[in-house]
Request: fold
Amino acid sequence: MSRFISRRFDSLKEYVPGEQPQDKKYVKLNTNESPYPPAPGVIERINDAEVRNLKLYSDPECRRLREMLAVQYGVEIGNVFVSNGSDESLSFAFMAFCDADCGAIFPDISYGFYKVYANLYGIRYTAVPLLEDFSIRPSDYYNAGATVVIANPNAPTGIALTIAEIEEIVKRNPDNVVVIDEAYVDFGAESAVALTKKYDNLLVVQTFSKSRSMAGARLGFAIGCEALIADLNKIKFSTNPYNVNRLTCAAGEATLAAQDYYNDNCRKIIETRAWTAEKLANLGFSMTDSKANFLFAKHESMDGEALYLALKARGILVRHFSADRISPYLRITVGSPEEMQALIDALTEILQNGGTV
Ligand SMILES: *Cc1c(COP(=O)(O)O)cnc(C)c1O
Reply:
């Protein structure tokens, strides 16, 4: 037999994650992970007893974790959904809130997974071009007649909409769900969580993967009105009721108990971002105004792919996208000050050599 997969997936192009190379140790600035480890309380929490308890299923409702999230974000437990990474919340949102009649709309340059989910679930979508300066024009999403999905700050540009702009988009789509993906919000943008109390059609999605140093644990969450959360639960209990495993749940609780530590890390990353932006500008790079834990930078003379390869040869991994308008750019995760010094040193050398690998 030469084919196994259903024909309906023939044209599906899967998401391609950033490289996680196992061949050698890189300065890893390609997938927006935190350079800082989880808080000490998280490491202590994953102890013998927790591991022994792996023989038991996890709490399918993750009550304690959701309660702690509700307290931290000033909402009720019924407004909180937790998931296996925020990718799963996004996936469930596409499944729950879009269909043949109600498509999706999102920017053409944004998180690559939106397109993949739409294709996976057979959802029509509109990819709205970003403006010339890579910003989102809010009015492009008014009266969309489709589920609106916007990353704020956007990826890979790092550019953020204001909370007033988000509110206007939500207000102008009273009959459609608006999903705001706040994966990077803790690095300097404004969260729309408070607006979920005012607007039933707003779902805010966040993750523990970036600002909370837990990319490998896979934990995300969504906040919205009870009806939206009930819809997500319907999908979850129809696919994988134990979507958040015991260790991740425990680690998530310990993370929320150490919020000061993570706020401090975000402050450091914002400082390092400013330091790096200045050094990059001195080397001839121009950048978007990133409010995320990465910089989106283009060199005045050297091509994005050539720079990516030259850095990789020097043991520094950044992300390069070959899509049309963004191929001159590199997306560079803001790591520790030492990592960013290594990046600047390598770039200085590469540019002095006229870009030879
Ligand atoms: C990293 C990222 C996510 C998902 O991360 P998870 O690890 O699945 O929580 C979602 N949206 C954007 C824009 C991201 O960059």
About this structure: The radius of gyration is 21 Å. The chain has a mean pLDDT of 96. The first strand starts at residue 27 and ends at 29. Residues 32, 85-87, 111, 151, 155, 181, 183, 207, 209, 215, 220 surround pyridoxal-5'-phosphate (CB under 6 Å).
